[in-house]
Design brief:
The complex is a heterodimer of chains A (309) and B (425). Chain A has 309 residues and is mainly alpha-helical. Chain A has helices spanning 2-27, 32-59, 76-83, 85-119, 123-134, 141-146, 148-152, 157-164, 179-203, 207-215, 220-249, 252-257, 265-274, 278-302, 305-308, and strands at residues 63-64, 69-70. The longest helix of chain A is centred in the N-terminal third of the chain and has 35 residues, at 85-119. The chains are: A mainly alpha (309), B alpha/beta (425).
């Protein structure tokens, strides 16, 4: 489902520019029509995005005790969040996960998309293989994640297989409840969010450009680095935005796959919420939001998605 | 509901009228004369998974006639929902240490002990503060210390039994460490064995701050590194020392994982990832039911106990309030008690539960005697083979050796911050 919505947004974004110019022309005559067109979306965003955000910001300045929140205006929550070494360590850890997962999914996603787009010649085979990529997404992501646990455990499938084959003599402990497990689960969960947008942009690359590169004497590597990668930049950027925001905000994967041993910002917020420390959680959420927005704007600075599309 | 509306009444006004009639002194026993109206009542109960049992809801429907809808949440979420959504429930099934946070916010109403028929039969831990007149008082948030308020509108806890109860006790137990006797390879006698380097990478502690810190405190005292004035109400330096100890232990690789929910603890133990950990009694039973050896090991320093109870939401009134009292009286009348005892918990009124259990069941679960025949779970699965003896022995042996109760500290906010440091470390 996430997928379908995603493809839609890409398509809408693609159509956007001619629509805008048409609208501009029309605006001079009936200025009410575009307003009405934008109205429903604006209303939804106001009620379900802007309003909750405002509440979030307001509550982040409140005081609290063990049972209730007390309306106030103080910076204690922020000084506690920003002044604590734990916060910094947790952010560092989250960045580390984000960076590793981003790198792995980008390479993996690019490779899969490349094979799908350029190596598979038949249109039908392309679509079938792409749908095969989405099959794991027919189950809930919690199930996809949890199913790793019996596989990777000390007495799990992988360890017992390796032991039986005589490849190892001690079960490998690092497989489960470790950073390895966390990164593996993230990669499994989010790789498709990289594949889809990159595949999408690759399919739009004019094949004549590849032929021209070939005719011009460029080898496979040269074609890849000077034609395919630059023209897939917007797909990579969109995929990166997805992966970065999801990993930065995640708390379930870290908790389950690290066995509660590692922390992430999302987990920190969730444990504050469960201890009824809403204002502290809000302050944390505001800081996280600011950081993620900065990361996204950095990505958008490097790649102008609009122009590239 | 459609039929009441067609008669021109709203359901609530009809119930309210009936409630006034019923409240005028006609309640003698169940089923009562207002059994017709009570069928329309739905009481919404929520609590942790331990006592939110569908079997109870079904039995309520057949014995009392009204509908009990249940929602199961985890421990933290129960407190949260109780405080933040007081209109979303009628009956809270909540733990005593949580009620210390919840009741002062005024979202619940005290119960009139006079309306509780079996009040005098409730285990004295709850009504007198001690199991027997000469037993010592354990540390932590004892159920007695938060069991009463001053009057019908009271929000502050009273020092003794006032007749206005915050919760009616339903279920309680004494917790200790669970072990895999086949894998630990030596006798386990003390809380400090949890941090024995021999079990490096094979131990676990639960990640619910208010409970986990107590288990850690039991370990610290057992090691002799720290003596607490009150483990259930630590000072800031005590919290600092305990958390520093936990962080060191974590960094040394002692813990395999931290668990937050019941099933996580079962899976950790059953899969052999962990061989010694903080555990809850039914989790031990669940591991054993898979045919895997698991022992709820009694320890020299004693148990960490907890208790839960049913409380009434502030908004309950009229017929619904009467139905709630009816439900609570029924709860204590034996059937549920027997059901809970058979799961390895204890019920608040033991006498009535005994009438609903076989002599062998009573002997095994409560008196600590060897089972004469196979012991079955409430669902009829074999839990223990004939000849088995309950870990820790009888009710009196176990409950008289409680060292502390689950609690909420005065330095709660600070403790949770420090606990999060431990998890993030």
């Amino acid at each position: 489902m996430e997928m379908a919505i995603f493809v839609d947004t890409v398509l809408v974004a693609k159509e956007a520019s001619p629509v805008v110019t048409r609208n501009k022309r029309r605006m001079r005559r009936f200025s009410i029509v575009p307003l009405l067109q934008a109205g429903p979306l604006a209303a939804i965003l106001c009620v379900f995005l802007l309003l909750p955000m405002c509440v979030l910001v307001v509550v982040s300045f409140f005081d609290y005790d063990s049972v209730q929140i007390i309306p106030a205006f103080e910076f204690t929550n922020y000084t506690e969040v920003l002044g604590s070494a734990v916060t910094w360590r947790t952010y560092l850890n989250t960045f580390r996960y984000t960076l590793i997962v981003w790198a792995v999914t980008a390479v993996l996603g690019f490779t899969v998309a490349y094979v799908l787009a350029f190596e598979i010649r038949s249109r039908t085979a392309q679509m079938v293989l792409f749908l095969v990529c989405t099959v794991p997404f027919l189950t809930s992501n919690i199930i996809r994640m949890i199913s790793w646990i019996p596989f990777l455990g000390r007495e799990g499938l992988l360890n017992s297989a390796l032991l039986k084959l005589g490849l190892i003599h001690q079960p490998l402990e690092f497989l489960l409840f470790s950073d390895f497990a966390v990164v593996l689960a993230y990669t499994h969960l989010y790789a498709l969010f990289m594949v889809t947008p990159i595949f999408n942009t690759m399919m739009r690359i004019d094949r004549r450009l590849l032929e021209a590169a070939l005719d011009g004497g460029a080898g496979w590597w040269r074609t890849l680095t000077t034609v395919v990668i630059p023209l897939s930049k917007s797909g990579i950027a969109i995929g990166s935005i997805f992966v970065v925001t999801m990993v930065m905000g995640d708390f379930v994967t870290v908790r389950l796959m690290s066995g509660g041993q590692s922390a992430s910002v999302g987990l920190m917020i969730s444990s504050q919420i469960s201890s009824l420390q809403y204002p502290a959680a809000c302050a944390n959420a505001v800081v996280l939001l600011a950081i993620v927005l900065m990361m996204i704007s950095a990505i958008l600075r490097i790649v102008d998605i609009r122009k590239e599309l | 509901m459609a039929s009441t509306r067609s008669r021109g009444f709203s359901r609530r006004s009809l119930l309210a009228t009936a409630g006034v009639a019923a409240g005028s002194g006609a309640i003698t026993g169940f089923p009562t004369i207002w059994a017709q109206n009570i069928k329309n009542v739905t009481l919404r109960q929520f609590g942790t998974g331990v006592s939110n049992l569908n079997a109870v809801a079904d039995k309520v429907k057949s014995d009392l006639g009204f509908t009990l809808s249940m929602t199961a949440l985890d421990t933290d979420a129960v407190t949260q929902k109780a405080v933040t959504q007081p209109k979303s429930y009628d009956i809270a099934d909540i733990e005593y240490f949580a009620i210390k946070k919840v009741f002062p916010t005024g979202v619940m109403q005290p119960m009139d002990a006079k309306k509780i028929k079996l009040y005098d039969k409730i285990v004295p831990i709850f009504t007198k503060g001690k199991l027997t007149p000469d037993s010592p008082i354990a540390q932590g948030t004892t159920p007695y210390s938060v069991g009463y308020v001053d009057g019908p509108n009271g929000k502050a806890f009273a020092k003794g039994a006032t007749g206005w109860m915050t919760l009616i006790p339903t279920i309680y137990n004494a917790d200790t460490l669970g072990i895999r006797p086949d894998l630990v390879g030596r006798p386990i006698n003390n809380w400090k064995d949890l941090v024995d380097p021999a079990f490096k990478g094979k131990a676990s502690i639960l990640n619910i701050p208010s409970i986990g810190i107590m288990d850690a405190a039991m370990v610290m005292e057992s090691l002799g590194t720290l003596k607490y004035a009150d483990k259930g109400n630590m000072t800031k330096p005590e919290i600092d020392k305990t958390v520093a100890f936990l962080i060191d232990t974590k960094k040394s690789g002692q813990f395999r994982a931290f668990w937050k929910s019941f099933d996580e603890s079962v899976n950790l133990m059953a899969s052999g990832e962990v061989i010694i950990q903080s555990m809850w009694s039914p989790a031990v039973a669940a591991v054993r039911s898979k045919g895997i050896a698991c022992k709820y090991q009694p320890l020299a320093e004693g148990y960490r106990a907890w208790a839960g109870g049913l409380g009434l939401a502030k908004h309950l009134s009229g017929l619904e309030l009467d139905a709630a009292y009816e439900y609570i009286n029924w709860y204590l009348s034996g059937w549920v008690g027997a059901y809970l005892n058979r799961q390895g918990y204890y019920s608040a009124v033991l006498e009535t539960a005994k009438e609903n259990m076989s002599a062998d069941e009573w002997g095994y679960w409560i008196e600590g005697k060897p089972a004469k025949a196979d012991i079955l779970s409430p669902e009829g699965k074999v839990m223990e083979k004939a000849g088995a003896v309950r870990d820790g022995g009888s009710f009196n042996e176990r409950m008289s050796r409680v060292a502390c109760w689950n609690s909420v500290m005065n330095e709660d906010r600070y403790m949770i911050q420090k606990w999060n440091e431990f998890i993030a470390a």
